[in-house]
Design goal:
The structure holds two protein chains of two kinds. By secondary structure, chain A is mainly alpha-helical. Chain A contains twelve helices and no strands. Chain A folds into two domains: 79 residues, no CATH class; 151 residues, Orthogonal Bundle (MetI-like fold). Chain B is an alpha+beta fold. Chain B is elongated and about 80 Å long. Chain B starts with a strand and ends with a strand. Classes of the chains: A mainly alpha, B alpha+beta. Bound molecules: adenosine-5'-triphosphate and magnesium ion.
């Protein structure tokens, strides 16, 4: 059993981590060395990393991604906390139906809503702006944020809320001073998931932006061009990929314990 | 401080009627205990007074103010919950200060109030701790402290001691009583523990199925329960009940024929109109006297023979489980120890004036004048 288990773990690790390792190796190579199937980089150099920032507005793209992902998280969590309070703590007709509808929203495939969303964004005058992305990313981030937070909020003891009400707290104070601190783990995990989704999203980012100035990282990487149209600049693309992945890994490691406890707290008690 | 007055208060949860037409006054400076079995509406009554649940009908007054339509924070009450409901992420100090800060009191005033209350409750060394680092008894005190600092007109307690172990419960009971006297506070205290009720209360409301069955001083209720339910609910071991029928013996006055050959003489002043009525006779375990059967022809007013099923020796007192003829079981409680043994046949007697008589519907009947 034991050796079998370790073998399985090893295979899974290899399967999931090897592409990333390969990206790191490739990002350190240039020219024809890229096409040698070496496991260790031959003639490692950081030139690719320098070039993506010099030849492209890659710094700007990273900043855009940060703004979009950060804005998405902030907006999604703010809206979701309010919705979760209503759905989790206030009794009203049609609450169950509303929750189902919210869940259903996240089931449409992205392409299905693409053209409709495009019209909407154009009509709102958001086309080719970061707001277009933040706005459209609500489609993915709101449903699960609302769900996770609703379940979490519903399970907070009613008597704590009532004690606060007797102490003179209104709904807003209850949410901000009592519930939010208690929900920190749930907020951290949903926020991080929302961040990841927004950071990695490609299709909407490609469709709703036009100029380099407002492009986010995934699109920028895909559009990195070589000297000629026949050359695909693997080295640059790999360097860019590694650059934008490392912070994510750090972020996940940092919040690791909170994510797990947050997700299970909602799940087990619900 | 102020009294609480309820006028025709009712509460429905959809089709369920949790409170029905309650009209009561909880007097200024008194500790009123709401006592009753689980699900009888005690918590609901407290929550309606607090404003956490809205009354379906009736009016609620605190002092002279009609608070029926006011939110909880404006009613000038404080509540201590069974689960304590402390804010888990705040220190003891912040837990107690939260309400005062929301009310916009100055920092210095808040600090002074909290420290004063903490000293009174002997938690002044714990002000920087979080609730999870406290014992059950300490949490209980913090919950009381949070109520205390608000200096409310009325304190509401919902089974505040039920999460504590037995020894701590006795101690906290004593402290609540002392605090109540010291502050002269009006308190409404919900419990289903009759020892708590008997020891703490100035006045008890006994509830059943959303109604107040009886209210009064603890010993009055104990001595003169208005119906079978109240009689059986107060006291451990509970009151014994035996079926009987009132019989008119003409010259010799009335008596009660107990279903199984026993007999009780009623005083001559008893009302003859009761003759023929089917009743239940209640006797508290401590009011029963148990003796070895002697065939000397003297039985006093009560004649009932029984067999000893079980002798429980508790040291200070002894509980005798008896089977009266007909198989009904009763419990007698005698002081100290007894030489009676299991299997013996004994005679049970009692002084007639401590017995309780209830009619078929369970209401108390007074056979004498
Ligand atoms: N929110 C509610 N919705 C529906 N019914 C309720 C609600 N709250 C209480 N009830 C019902 O009202 C009745 C009284 O409940 P309440 O909680 O006041 O009882 P209690 O006397 O406090 O009991 P316990 O000693 O178990 O705490 C019960 O039948 C209960 O089921
Ligand atoms: Mg209750």
């Amino acid at each position: 059993m034991r050796p079998g288990l370790w073998l399985a773990v090893g295979l899974i690790l290899l399967f999931s981590l090897f592409p990333f390792y390969w990206a790191i190796v490739s990002s350190l190579e240039t020219g024809t060395a890229l096409f040698d199937a070496d496991l260790l980089p031959s003639g490692a150099t950081l030139r690719n990393y320098g070039e993506i920032f010099a030849a492209q507005p890659f710094g700007r793209n990273i900043l855009n991604s940060l703004l979009v992902a950060g804005g998405t998280v902030a907006l999604a969590l703010t809206l979701a906390v309010g919705a979760a309070y209503a759905l989790g703590r206030v009794a009203f007709r049609g609450r169950g139906l509303l929750l189902m509808v919210i869940l259903a929203v996240s089931m449409f495939p992205q392409v299905a809503v693409l053209s409709g969303l495009f019209e909407l964004i154009a009509a709102l005058g958001l086309y080719n702006s970061l707001w277009a992305l933040i706005f459209s990313y609500m489609i993915f981030t709101l449903p699960f944020s609302v769900w996770v937070l609703t379940v979490f909020m519903r399970d907070l003891p009613r008597e704590i809320e009532e004690a606060a009400i007797i102490d003179g707290a209104g709904s807003f104070t209850v949410v901000t001073r009592i519930f939010l601190p208690l929900m920190a783990p749930a907020l951290a995990s949903t926020g991080l998931l929302a961040f990841l989704v927004a950071w990695n999203e490609f299709l909407f980012a490609l469709t709703f932006t036009l100029s380099d100035k407002v492009r986010t990282v995934p699109v920028a990487i895909a559009l990195i061009s070589g000297q000629s149209q026949y050359e695909i600049p693997w080295g640059h693309m790999m360097a860019a990929s590694v650059t934008v992945t490392l912070p994510l890994i750090l972020l996940v490691l940092l919040f690791q314990r909170r994510i797990v406890s947050g997700l299970t707290a909602g799940a087990v008690k619900g | 401080m102020a009294q609480v007055r309820l006028e025709g208060v009712a509460k429905r949860f959809g089709p369920v009627s949790a409170l029905a037409d309650i009209t009561e006054t909880m007097a200024d400076g008194e500790l009123t205990v709401i006592l009753g079995p689980s699900g009888c509406g005690k918590s609901t009554l407290l929550r309606v007074i607090a404003g956490l649940d809205e009354a379906t009908a009736g009016r609620i007054f605190i002092g002279d103010r009609d608070v029926t339509d006011l939110p909880p924070a404006k009613r000038d009450i404080a509540m201590v919950f069974q689960s304590y409901a402390l804010y888990p992420h705040m220190t003891v100090f912040d837990n107690m200060a939260f309400g005062l800060k929301l009310a916009g009191r100055s920092r210095a005033a808040v600090r002074a109030k909290v420290e004063e209350a903490a000293k009174l409750l002997r938690i002044d060394g714990l002000l920087d701790r979080k609730p999870r680092a406290l014992s059950g008894g300490q949490r209980q005190r913090v919950a009381m402290g949070r109520a205390l600092v608000r200096e409310p007109q009325v304190f509401l307690f919902d089974e505040p001691l039920s999460n504590l172990d037995a020894a701590l419960r006795v101690e906290m009971r004593f402290e609540i009583a002392a605090l109540q006297k010291q502050l002269g506070a009006t308190m409404v205290y919900v419990t289903h523990d009759q020892v708590e009720a008997m020891t703490l209360a100035d006045r008890i409301l006994v509830m059943r199925d959303g109604r107040v069955e009886q209210s009064g001083a603890p010993l009055d209720i104990y001595r003169r329960p208005v119906n079978r339910f109240v009689a059986g609910f107060l006291g451990t071991p509970g009151m014994n009940f035996i079926d009987g029928r009132i019989v008119d013996r003409g010259e010799n006055g009335l008596g009660i024929a107990l279903g199984d050959g026993g007999w009780i003489d009623l005083p001559l002043a008893a009302e003859t109109r009761l003759a023929g009525e089917v009743i239940q006779v209640g006797g508290r375990p401590e009011d029963l006297m148990v003796e070895k059967e002697r065939d000397d022809g003297k039985h006093g007013g009560v004649r009932l023979s029984a067999e000893v099923l079980l002798v429980e020796r508790l040291g200070a007192e002894t509980h005798l489980h008896l089977s009266v003829a007909g198989g009904r079981r009763i419990i007698a409680r005698v002081g100290g120890e007894t030489s009676l043994r299991q299997g013996e046949t004994v005679r049970v007697s009692a002084s007639v004036d401590v017995l309780h008589l209830f009619d078929v519907s369970g209401d108390r009947i007074a056979p004498v004048g």
